[in-house]
Amino acid sequence: MDLVWIFCGGNTQLFYQFVNIPFAFLFCCLAKQGHLSIINRYIYLTLGGFILAIVTMGPYSLLLFFSAVLLLLLIHCLRPMHIHQWTLGLQMCWQTCWHLYIQYQLYWLQETPDSRLLLAISALMLMTQRVSSLSLDLQEGKLSSQDQALIPFLSYSLYFPALLGGPLYSFKTFVESVRQISVTPPFASYLGNLTSKILQVVVLVWIKYPLKELLKSVIFRVNSTCVFQDILWIWILSLLLKMNYYAHWKISECVNSAAGIGLHGYGHSGKTSWDGLSDGSPWVTEASSRPSVFARQWNRTTAEWLRRMVFKRSNRSSLFMTFGFSAWWHGLHPGQILGFLIWAFTVQGDYKLHHFLHPKLTSLWRKWLYVCLNWAFTQLTISCVVVCVELQSLASVKLLWSSYITVFPLLSILMIFIL
Q: What is the pLDDT of residues 57-116, one digit of tens each?
């Protein structure tokens, strides 16, 4: 266990997810061998989430239990046509209260918040996704009467494989996955997929160490008089921050896969596909040659949730409404507000630039030149977003605006007005 803690580099969330894997593996084995009935599977997943919340969050686990009970009360008391507005509204208000309390501790009291509280709020944000997704399914009539039972509802909101890290998927997919665990493909396929994903996590964590050494190197310095060094330092910092996210999302996939959840059927080659529950591939995301493509690939299930909750339901300024809601959901820290505002302008500028240049890309070399330049532009503008959002405070804003890299998001704003 000490080796796992050292490997995780003191990241408690990553450590808890590694510890989760054996319990998820045990659940899958018991279900496959017929020792757990359907109702007992729901109970196992719910009790696992209940225990995990208490162990990792202590008294702050009550934040999650309150949301779970509130969801059941709203389902019981409200008609389906009204349930989504009340569920999303009350859940966002509850979550925002705790985000504001964190800001009060950080900026007013100048205190470091309890790590258990931070973990609880992170889990609360993920619960907001699940309960709002469920409430919208109920409002849109997507669930059959046999799916509408309190125990599956409670299990969906608290089940332990996704409690600390997602990914998000619909209630209907959750119910089908729990029912079909006993008929999943052979054990060799299941074990091979799990091993592959764990190795990917190991690679992502190891990549962070040379990036940290580069940041400490005298060669790369922030606010350097050399433009190249200054921009490169911010880009490496953003890459390090992104690796934390990628490792976290991939280990969350591991926990769900270990529980036997996430089977996506069979590919063209006849092999089983376990990518049904994924926040995207780090390699595909980093290869994105347009900011708008990066936005859709980054934290894919959350991007789809935002699209469903806000973008498709907004009558005007859908793009800015979506990024504004994302800033609210993340906590409304100063850096987050600026970061998501930059991201919205970058995506809007990308749409206009692509619409303007695409008809002119008539030859292969022009297309390759456009892709390469746009990839570099995407990396640098997203670096600004990641640094702002992740560092959160006004210090991140000052760090960014003292760097030459701010030229790139400003170019996005300029493109909107010119084109």
A: 999 999 999 999 999 999 988 888 899 999 999 999 999 999 999 999 998 998 999 999
Q: Place 10 in a pLDDT band, splitting at 50, 70 and 90.
A: confident
User: Which tokens go with 71?
Assistant: 């969801």
pLDDT of residue 146: 64
Q: How far apart are CA 342 and CA 380, in angstroms?
A: 12
408's tokens: 């790139």
Is 299 catalytic? The answer is yes
Q: From its phi and psi, is residue 193 left (phi > 0), alpha (psi between -120 and 50) or beta?
A: alpha
Q: 272 has which bridge partners? A: 266
Query: What single-letter DSSP state applies at residue 114?
Result: P
Q: How many other CB atoms sit within 10 Å of the CB of residue 189?
A: 15
Q: Which of 84, 99, 248, 330 is the catalytic position?
A: 330
Instruction: With H, G, I as helix, E, B as strand and everything else as coil, classify residue 260.
Output: coil
Q: What distance in Å separates the CA atoms of residue 400 and residue 382, rounded to the nearest whole number?
A: 12
Q: For this structure, is 11 an active site residue?
A: no
For range 274-282, the mean pLDDT: 76
SS3 of residue 317 by DSSP: coil
* Identity at 88, one-letter amino acid code: L
List 20, 193, 256, 299, catalytic entry:
299
pTM, two decimal places: 0.92
In angstroms, the first-to-last Cα distance of the chain is 57
